[in-house]
Give the backbone structure.
Amino acid sequence: MLTAGEPSIGLEEAVPLPDHRSTSAVAPPAVGGSPRERAGAGGALANHESNTISPAPCGDQRDLRAARLAVMGELASSIIHEINQPLSAIVASAEAAKRWIERDRPVLAEASAMLDDVISEVSRVADIVTGLRALARNQEADATLVEMNSIIEEVTAALRPELARLSIRLELSLCSDGLVVLGSRVQIQQVLVNLLRNSIEAIRDEPVAAPAISLTLQPSGTSVVCTIADNGPGVAPSIKGMLFEPLATSKSDGMGMGLAISRSIASSHGGALDLLPTPTGAKFRLTIPRHIAVAGDRQPGQVSSEGALMASPRPLAK
Ligand SMILES: Nc1ncnc2c1ncn2[C@@H]1O[C@H](COP(=O)(O)OP(=O)(O)OP(=O)(O)O)[C@@H](O)[C@H]1O
Ligand SMILES: [Mg+2]
């Protein structure tokens, strides 16, 4: 952590990537201590405000290297966390395609539909990895117009089988106004999936009577506000203070990355992710600036004559 009187060096440091290309990455603000301490002090993906690190004393390259390794470790953890679910979907679709082909009378149309799913999930994985690398490098990502209702419907459709298996009722309260934000569709999906998964896991781990998750979307001033609340056990007091820090988890199988990545994505969109007080269960609020259409804007999802998607993309706010 930078202390008064210490000179600082910039965030952007050359970091060797696994593919041996060199790029710049966000160095964490502190070096040394446990991985939790390093990451919790403002890990690369989770903190866009900490823009400086302490210089290594007397140019000690080992400390700088340790800082870079911490960045790489956090990026790796984030990628592992975020691509697990699409990878499972890819395996399931590929296995289903194989079954359709291996039937006595193969049904190629079904197999082909399954392979389409594989292709779209693989491209989602690529987009997720690209987005995480951009976040870790504090780089600007291209943004497009995103219609929040449609994103929520996509995300909840994918989770419905699991909700049904656990008898969790999902109450959706969407906005008829068709709220639009300027951002990364894949990254906003990631945030919603992470929040919904946490609610599902909280209820799964400590079952309650009439388990339910409610998701509400509404405008608020110049923002779009999405709240996700559940009637599970609520956030344990012991973890409340570090909820959004990387590696903070109360679960035996948790990585403690979901909320850290999600808050980082929210802030890269110029928004916020917070835990709200609630008498029972847990309630999280995602806020993203609302895009107000101006004459000449294309509709979300509309493809231009050049084939580019929607209104002119612009970099996400930092
Ligand atoms: N809806 C919720 N109800 C109760 N506790 C929650 C809820 N959401 C988050 N938490 C608490 O916040 C912690 C951090 O959540 P986060 O999503 O960052 O990590 P995780 O779920 O433990 O692991 P993973 O990285 O696999 O998502 C959780 O371990 C849990 O203690
Ligand atoms: Mg989680």
User: Anything to note?
Assistant: The helical segments are 35-40, 61-102, 108-136, 148-165, 185-205, 237-240, 258-268. The chain has seven helices and twelve strands.
